[in-house]
Structures are given as C-alpha cells and as structure tokens.
Amino acid sequence: MEKMSGIAGVYQRENCRELVGNILDKIKHRGPDDISIISLGKTALGQTCFAGEKIGRGQDVFAVVDGSIFNEEIDGDAAGDKIVNAYIKYGKGFTKELEGSFAFILADGDRVIAARDPVGLKPLYYAEDEGSVMYFASEIKALKDISEDIKIFPPGYYYHSDEGFVKYYKKPVLGSNGDISVEEAISKVKELLVNAAEKRYEDNKKLGLYLSGGIDSSVVAAAASEIADDIDTFSVGVHTSEDLPNARLVARHLGTNHHEYIYKPEEMLKVLPEVIYHLESFDMYLVRSSIANYLVSKIARESGVDLVFCGEGGDELFGGYHYLKDFEPEEIENELLKLTFNGHNNGFQRVDRMTAAHSLDGHMPIMDNEVAEFAYSLPVEWKIYEEDGKKIEKWILRKAFEDDLPEEIVWRKKAKFFKGAGSADILKQFADQKISDEEFEREKQIDDDFVLRSKEELYYYRIFKEYFPHKSILETIGRTATVKK
C-alpha cells in the first residue's frame, strides 16, 4: 500500500526535470521525507514522498501515484508498481479496472497517461501551454507560478497524450439492487465497512481516528475496532462544543486512547490564513469545518499518528442531510449522486488538504469502492427511513452498527462539523465586525457569475486572493449547497 504523496509531471517541454523539482517543493508536506524525479526526454515525473517509497517502474514504463490501489490480482506491493503492472496487463484503458483512491501520472516512452479516481478522493490539477505542453500537480499552489489557467483534473477521467481526456467511469444507477432483504443489506453494510477499514490498516503504523461522536465517525471507529486493538481517537472543539462529550462517550465504549483538544477563538483566527492556503478554497462552510479538521490533524500528528481514518462520505452515500427528507425518492437519488460527485472540491478536498497539511496519510473508509457501489444499489427508502411518521436519515448505516455503539450515538441527529465543533458563530461575528455593510455590497460580486454569500466569505476570499490571485482559479472552487429544495 502506498502512503500519501505529492505528484507532478511535465510533458512536451525541454529541460523539464528542474521544473518538476520546483513544483514538488511547493507540496513537500504531502511527503516530507524524499523527492524522486525521473526524466525521459521532454517528459519528467516526480513525487514527494515518505521514506521507503519509490517511483513505479517496469518495462520502460514509469508512474507516480498519490493514493492506494487495492486490487489483489495486480502484482506489486506499492501503488506505483501496481499502476505500471495494470497498464502492462490491461493496456491504456486499465484505469477502469482499478480499485482504490488515486491520482497518477504514467510515462511510456513519449506517451503520458494521467488519471483520477471516480469521485476525486485524491486531488489532481493541470495546466496547458503552447505546443501541447502539459503540467500536472496534486495541488493548485504547485502550478500557480507556472500558469494563470489552472484546471481541475476531472474525476472519473484519464488523460492520454494521443487522445486527450477520456471518461472511463459511468455514474451508477441508484436503487438497482432489488433482490436483497433489508436484514441482509444491514449485515452487508457492516461487513463491507469492516473490510474497508482492514484494507487501509497497516499494523506497522500508529492508527488514529477523527471522532466527532456523530454516526459517520463513530461507525468508522467501530469498524476499525474490529480489526485493530490499539487505536487513538481525536476530537476538537471550543469549550461549548456538543461534539466533545459525544466523542468521549464513543471512545469509552470502544476503549480507544482518546485525545481531546479545546481551542479558543484567537487560535482559530491565528490558523485561518494557513487553513485557507492549504485548503485552496474560500467557500464559507468549507473553511469553517476545515479549521476543526486542521487542528485535529495537528494534534494527531503531534501524538505520533501517521495514519488516520475519518467518517467523510456517510452523508453522500447514505442520505445524511436533513433537507433530503422533504424530497421525493427520485429527487433524493439525484441529489445524492450530485452530492457524491461534487465532493471532490468540497468535503473530500477538505479531508485531503487538512491531513496533508500535517503530512498525515488520511483515509475515508466509507468511500471505499465496494461500500460505495453497494450503497448506490440500495433503495433510497432504506437510507431515509420513515417510522412512526418520522423520517430517519442514514437509517441503514445506523442499523448496521446498532449493537456496536451507545444508543444515544446511533440515533443522534446530524450536526455540521463546524457546528458540532463550535466554530460557526465565532467566525461569523468576527467577520461582521471586520467588514462593513458598504464594503460587502461593493466587493461581493467577484466575477460575472460568482457572488459571495456573506461578510464571512468575503473575509476568507480576501485571504485566499493573497495566495491565489489569478481569477481563473475561481473555476476550481466548490460551493457548499445551501438551498433546501
């Protein structure tokens, strides 16, 4: 299994080895121990990595990878070797055979292939230049001094230097599994989640879990407890946070080594510029929740953890948003697909960037391929379940771990991470004091079709613009959905 890496590639440019090194210097936090670069004529690939990692190679084919490949039928221990061997075995369309979360760049002679996993759990960006020159990197900051027109590498696509961008993944049809009973489905959800945790666990690493006391992080903790004995859990918030007592309850129940950190408003404001720099976004809701993610990653790293699990993905796959209760079943299915496949520059981006900022190898077991495909197939009525006139979100996920967690946790109502951690009101009040009504009205329209939603978001945008001044980068910004219907 591969750890997190920062990857970069340059195609069709003379003397590109040094340039790849400069790109990687800006994302060294994604793998602080070493930088590996290989150059092949007008192509160079590189990765910033942890000790012991290497560029994948075989039969004059080379690959750099950020992520994990779980296919047992593909030879190789490291993700880079698996990518190379999959390419040799299946040919240029090999990406559709891969199971895992990944972004990679592969060179075969004068050809280059790059790809990203179906939902974009791992990041990748690109920029184009005259003469078919292409630049690739894991984060925007790595390319911002090279190009003013940086684009998101679309999830579920591969790029081939002979063909351009090719879509390899088709979005699933939801609710297609009509041959399974609800009891079998409940059991299967648990089985798959435990398997997902086991795939990502390495017994030579210290495992940590981000624990809010909500159902998503709690089921991941319960699943991990089935396969690992010595687990550290981490929870953060302000002193009034509702997450902290709930996380304590889960930690006691599962017998984890629990760590708790209470932060003050001034600490939130102090880390805010660094959060926005690493996050590469100014979306108000995303920044709010990223502060808590940033701080919990910091204490996890300081505790000696190098592998962390979090609960991201439960809302998207199992219907965790309250507003969905007002939708008809078909509308819910469409909304869940939209939420899942828009997560690459929203919640999934937050998890990736905040763990990477502290050189942590972060994983989202709920977004495992097998878990996701099974969740897609289930009837929406098992996700948002009606009982005694009330609709219960994520019902089947709760039922799957009903016997493994305290009852009050299993049936706890969802709280946004930034609300549970207690950061929302503090940040809003600070921005309202800093920015006048007149300033907001004057500055809220930042592009023809991009309007900032609040003074708070304007405050974040001002910080963002100092790091990322090019207007084209606005196209990479995901927007958290706020419309209820």
UniProtKB/TrEMBL annotation:
GO annotation, biological process: asparagine biosynthetic process
Matching InterPro entries: Asn_synth_AEB, Asn_synthase, Asn_Synthetase, GATase_2_dom, Ntn_hydrolases_N, Rossmann-like_a/b/a_fold
Keyword entries, A-Z: Amino-acid biosynthesis, Asparagine biosynthesis, ATP-binding, Ligase, Nucleotide-binding
Transmembrane stretches, start-end: none
Superkingdom of origin organism: Bacteria
Record flagged with keyword Ligase: yes
Keyword hit for Amino-acid biosynthesis: yes
Residue numbers marked as site, Important for beta-aspartyl-AMP intermediate formation: E312
GO CC annotation terms, alphabetical: cytosol
Domain Glutamine amidotransferase type-2 per the UniProt entry, residue ranges: 5-164
Pathway listed: Amino-acid biosynthesis
Pfam families named in the record: Asn_synthase, GATase_7
GO molecular function: asparagine synthase (glutamine-hydrolyzing) activity; ATP binding
Reactions catalysed, as given in the entry: L-aspartate + L-glutamine + ATP + H2O = L-asparagine + L-glutamate + AMP + diphosphate + H(+)
EC number: 6.3.5.4
Top EC class of this enzyme: ligase
Protein name in UniProt: asparagine synthase (glutamine-hydrolyzing)
Species: Koleobacter methoxysyntrophicus
Gene: asnB
